Amino acid sequence: MQQQLREHLERIVSLTDEEFALVLAQFTSRQVRKGQFLIRKGERVRELYFVVQGLLKLVHTDAAGKAHIVSLAMEDWWEGDFAAYLAQAPATLSLQCLEDTAVWCLPLAGYEYLCQQLPQMARFFLVKFARGGIAAQQRIVSLLALPARERYERLLRQYPTLPQRVSKTLLAAYLGVSRETLSRLADQERPPK
């Protein structure tokens, strides 16, 4: 797990062995079972998560009790309720494991320490947060402006293994379509027999 974290960081910044040891000291690792929550709505958010293995769903539950999937996070992704994490406030989102999952956990004090002590880590987080913001904007535009077929095709191009990892019901909710619509889209993708 340490090597995967180091490789992930070093795609953006360079770290000496001593610097990586300092980075690693700020994290804890955790194994979480399918169905368990890393964050529950209303609880204080203490950590940000780097996914080593597994799959997570970040969900907003509205006042009527309807769950809206904000994201699906897989290997090499950072996930959490970022606003609640940075403010050390109660979560407005829930983060649940869809598979048995291994994560690195970074408390806010560790994040702040790394940004102060290692300028390259401040740069790393700036790049990751910017990329995450861009991806979130693209997802919003996709949901607002693209037809279901284009959203589905984009998902298949970006995350080709995702349909094998989640149920059609969950995938449909993520795409903002009914399960029946997703089935039609998936059937149209298959070559004729």
What does this structure look like?
The chain is of the alpha+beta class and 193 residues long. The chain folds into 2 domains: 2-128, Sandwich (Jelly Rolls); 146-193. It is 49% helix and 21% strand. It is built from 9 helices and 8 strands. The chain has a 4-stranded antiparallel β-sheet with strand order 1-8-3-6. A 4-stranded antiparallel β-sheet has the order 2-7-4-5. Helix 4 packs across helix 5 (119-145). The chain is globular, with a radius of gyration of 18 Å. The protein starts with a helix and ends with a helix. The mean pLDDT is 93. This is Crp/Fnr family transcriptional regulator. It holds the Pfam family cNMP_binding. InterPro entries: cNMP-bd_dom (IPR000595), cNMP-bd_dom_sf (IPR018490), Env_Response_Regulators (IPR050397), RmlC-like_jellyroll (IPR014710).
Provide a compact summary of the structure.
The protein is α+β, with helices and mostly antiparallel strands and 193 residues long.
